[in-house]
Write a structure and sequence with these properties.
33% strand; 5 strands
Amino acid sequence: MAVKLRLTRVGKTKQPQYRIVAADSRSPRDGRFIQILGWYNPREEPSVLNVDNDKVVHWLSQGAQPTDRVRKLLEISGAIEQFEASK
């Protein structure tokens, strides 16, 4: 089972908010996930990002692959630096 760290869309029509989740790569975008790792709201000014870095580091150490957008968000939150320091 290949695990990906990716965004899942939640919120009303034309008011998106996103959860950062660990999910099986074969499941649909808004389908089943394994664990919620944080959330991201791009509609607020400035955009709000809340990530549990310890959970993210755990999943990255288990071999989970983040998508491009999630990788950028994790760099902002400092989770990537924390993961590389723990190696």
